[in-house]
Structures are given as structure tokens and as C-alpha cells.
């Protein structure tokens, strides 16, 4: 499918071509939709009803999100324009116009982000006794304390770089914070320019006085501390002026796999090149003089449109550091994940037998409300240690640096088991870490493969083969999230543990596809991309539309991170036009135009954001009263459906189907804090009731439901 233009609808059986046609402007722009998502994150930071350290954390998340957006999405658009490649756009607009709109919205959001910190969050932090101060506000005693810290820990590692005919303008690494410095030779009167990089390995916020109690604590920005001690870096020179700036570079990675025999070597070269990607955004402090601005624009070869003038401090990712402050009353209430009731050991001094539990029933896991450590991690650790386990196969897309998952695979291989790890080394921004783990696994005897040329392996799968009384039995896990113990505590995800022979045989086929040369199209409980996942969903959507046309009950419920695929969206439009109620629950990008007369008036779109990142993907269809519900790794994007190995699994246990459908009922309730996509394309937050009181937080309710399931099944 050509991503440049949306495909024309194909008439359904008994439908005329005229009846099938939909408006050309039926999609929202995907990039502006992503910025709208980040605006929703910003609205959480602006919400005075949230704990203040969580608000500061949302400011940092917004900054980090926007950095990645520029490094990947904006950089990709700009690169394609420069090289003359076709630019994907689902709204049929000129690429330059798209970039212009992105720039306008990004400027607006960055200004709002800075204002949210200065006018809302910083005063609220100060009221709670947490102060981010400037050097000028300190007394001499404070300055003396900081000078000692500066002299001992910061000054020795600083590297000022002159810029003159003998010293060309230095390379500025992406996302680094820098000081532009203008100095004057006291003997000749000549002015010079220098650049100083703020050390990235040091905390951005420095305690003014470590003796202060956490009920009253002060921090100073590292660049502010450095800027007020520049004289010692330029002896014999007079420091005239200094300003802060930061550049964002193109850090997207593209590999022509069919042109190389060694994928890892090709990726390593590309990662090296990524460090020197062209600049795409320049952030400067609002006090910077025009001469310095002109110099930076010239040296970075960017346009004025790509310059963002902001108040200090730049790069509010620094606020991540405040989240570690031990003030429970300023954070979300503590939540300890519960162990899934079916995986609880019979006594407190025993470990659960995962195989025994899964042999009895399918187990649906809901993280982080239910513990990853006592479910998925325990499953792999038990499999690694069990002498009856003969083989373990697993996909690894992202995992943590000290991953117990990798440790379990290594232990299994060292004990003589057959172990296969499909490591996706092209997982964006985790490439280097995944290369390290791939090599470590190989040294331990794990069979490491990198998937299929031209496709990323994004599915989340574990397949364990265990011998029981002379018979080989399958134990499987299919999830919506990565095998990463760290992110499992902050990402909302679902996972299915099952001993189903049908699922086991499906995974046997799928892993043969991933590791060998098999071409498999037939699965029983799985839908697998890129061969038939899209078609499987389209057939289900059409079945609901047919039911509606025949006067039968129908309904479609979808939960995804992003939905931009035009074929899927057009199918939903047709189903809506035929009378099918469609509920779409999306965290991030949404190209659907909801509530449009004639084609989407039956589509509702909601978004839920909070302390956890909503990450699970669910596809549910009414199916004449016998709900057809699938969970898995796939979002509704071109890359997921056409250029990735993705897998959805059908839920068969009635209690699991009910649990998932109840999630939708909750998310679309008028009593839940959420955002609604309005007909004009704006996201409207509904977080206060008629009395002005906060609506219920869905994720807090999910915690309660997880505990309730445990209590109910313990009776």
C-alpha cells in the first residue's frame, strides 16, 4: 500500500461505488495528532488536583516525548523532503505545509510548557518546600558551599572550546546543554566566542545545601552554577556574556538490510552515523543576543522557524530528578502490585508452581496492577530451572539493562536446554543495548536470531516445551508489552498464560517462521502480521457491519496506542455508517475523525492518561452475542500491519472476556477522568463533575478491581 495517499474504499457486497465513497478529508493529521497527545500529557502537569511531584514529572515526560518526536518524526519528514523521497501523509497535504503546521503547534506547546513550569508547577513546588533557585538569589554562605562542590566535582571535567580561525566551530552533540560564551582579551580588547558543554553524566539539579531537611530543600540548575564560575575557565580574559542553547538532531536509523550480509555490523555503522545527524531544532535562552543567534543559525544551517526561544531553564527533563524526592504526600499513593490470584502459592514460605497453575486454566494478567515479577518473570525462571523443560523460545524487543529475563535464558542454555531468543536489535533507541544482550546470549549458548529481513519482530511471545509423563506439553505467554521488569511497573499491559495445545502449536509454527525459512499462513488462535492480521480484523469489522445491516446487534471496541491505518479506519467508517457502535480507546495518535455526519457519527473516541502509560492493545467484536476478543502487540499503523511481525491471541475464557469488556465500560463512563475526541478534532478533557469535584481516576479503580479479584477468588 502506498502511504502517500489514502486508499479508495472498495464497495462492499450489494453496495454501489457511490455509496462506498468517503470524503477526501476524512483523516486527522498524524503528526498534529501526536502533538495533541503530548498536549494531554501537559494538561496533567497543569492539573492542580494532582500531587505536585507528579505534575513536575509530567513536565519532564512532555519534554522527553517532544525530543523524540523531533528526532524521529520531524527529522524523517525533513530528510524525505531534502532527498526527494515520497513523504507519507494521510491527509494529502504538501510536506512543507505539514512541517509548517508542526512548527507552529510545537512553538505554541513549548511556550505553554515553559509557562506551566514557571507559573504553575514551580510555585506549587515552592509552596511544598521544594525550591529551584538561581545563583543571584543565594547568600554568601550558600555560594561558598556551592563553590566547594563546584571546585571538587565539576570544574575538573569542564572543557571550554574556543571558536576562532584556528579552532573551527565544534561538533555539538544532540540534546546536550551548552553555554555560548563571549569573552574579551583584557590586553588587546578583542572579543572571542567559546562553547562549553554542560556535563551530561552529572545531575542537572544540584542540592544547594545537603544538610537541609527534605521538607525544605533547594536546588540550583547545573548550568547556572557553572555559568557563575566562568572566570576561572578563562584566566586573563573578561567574560562579557553567556547564554544557554541546545540542539536536537536527526537520530532516526535506517538500514538497507538487503544490501548487507551482517545486520549487526550495518546497524553499528548506522548508530555511529546517527550521532552526527543534521540539526532539526535549536532551543535558545530568551536572553540570547542577536549576534549569537545568527552565529548558531549559520553554523547549524537551520531556519529561523526551527529556533525555539524559551525562558530558563531549558530542557525540563531535569525535573525527572525531583521525582526521587522522598515525600510520599507529594506523589501518587503507593501501589504494590498484587500477585494474580491463580499464581499465589499455597503458603507464604513456598513458591508458586506456575506450570501447575497454568495447566489448570488460562490466566489473564493485568500489569502493573498484577505483578510481572510473580507471573511472567517467575514463569521464565521456573522454566530455566525445571529439568523437565526441554526448550524455551522467546522474542525480546526491549528489556532492562539488568534483566532477570535474559539471566533466565542464559541459565537455561547453560543447563543444556534448547533456547531460542529472537532479539530485535532495531528497536528504536534500544539498538546498542540489544546488541550487547544478543552477544551475551550467544556466548552463553542461546540460539540468537534477528528475525526476517525487512521486518521488525514486535510480538511479545514465550513458548516453553515441557516433558510430562513422556508427553510434550506447551506452555505459552502472549502479551501486549515488552519483557522488561522495569517498565512493567509503569506500563499498563495484558498478558495471557496458557497451556493450550492450540496456542502452543501456533507458536511452534510462528517461531519456525521467525528462525527459519518457513512461510506459514494458517494459525488457529493467533492473528499474525503482516500476512493476515489486517485481513482478520477487516473480516471481523465487516461481519459486525453485516449484522447491523440485517438488524442484528453489533459492536466494535478497540484499544490501541495509535490508529492511523487508512484501510482499518475506512472499514470502521463504513461499519459506523451501517449503524455499528464503535468505541476506540487510544492513548496517542488518532487519525479518525469522530462524530462526522454520514460516516462516523457512531464512532466514539476516548483517551485515558495517568500515572501508568496505557499500553495494552485489545480488539473486541460483538459477534452475535458471543464476544470475539483478542489481545496482542499490534497498533493500527502501517508499520505494525505491513512491516512488523505482530501477534494477537483470542481470549476463550468467559471471565477473561468479561474482564476486558468491563475495562471499556469503565473507560467510556461519564464518571471517569478522560479525554473525548470532539467532532472538530479537538481533545476535550472531562475531569470534573457538575460540582467541580475531580472525576474518578480509572487507573486507581483498576487497582481496586485487581484487589477485588484476589479477595473474591480467595473465598
UniProtKB/TrEMBL annotation:
Protein task: Catalyzes the reversible transfer of the terminal phosphate of ATP to form a long-chain polyphosphate (polyP).
Pfam families hit by this protein: PP_kinase (PF02503), PP_kinase_C (PF13090), PP_kinase_C_1 (PF17941), PP_kinase_N (PF13089)
GO molecular function, one term: ATP binding
EC number: 2.7.4.1
Stated name of the protein: Polyphosphate kinase
Domain annotation Polyphosphate kinase middle: ranges: 142-322
The entry's keywords: ATP-binding, Kinase, Magnesium, Metal-binding, Nucleotide-binding, Phosphoprotein, Transferase
UniProt xrefs under NCBIfam families: poly_P_kin, PRK05443.1-1, PRK05443.1-2, PRK05443.2-2, PRK05443.2-3
Positions contributing to ATP binding: 65, 491, 587, 615
Family: Belongs to the polyphosphate kinase 1 (PPK1) family.
Chain ranges of the Polyphosphate kinase C-terminal domain: 353-518, 526-690
Catalytic activity: [phosphate](n) + ATP = [phosphate](n+1) + ADP
Domain Polyphosphate kinase N-terminal: 27-133
Reported cofactor(s): Mg(2+)
InterPro entries: PP_kinase, PP_kinase_C_1, PP_kinase_middle, PP_kinase_middle_dom_sf, PPK_C_dom2, PPK_N_dom, PPK_N_dom_sf
GO biological process assignments: polyphosphate biosynthetic process
GO CC annotations on file: polyphosphate kinase complex
Binding site for Mg(2+): 398, 428
Active site: 458
UniProt modification remark: An intermediate of this reaction is the autophosphorylated ppk in which a phosphate is covalently linked to a histidine residue through a N-P bond.
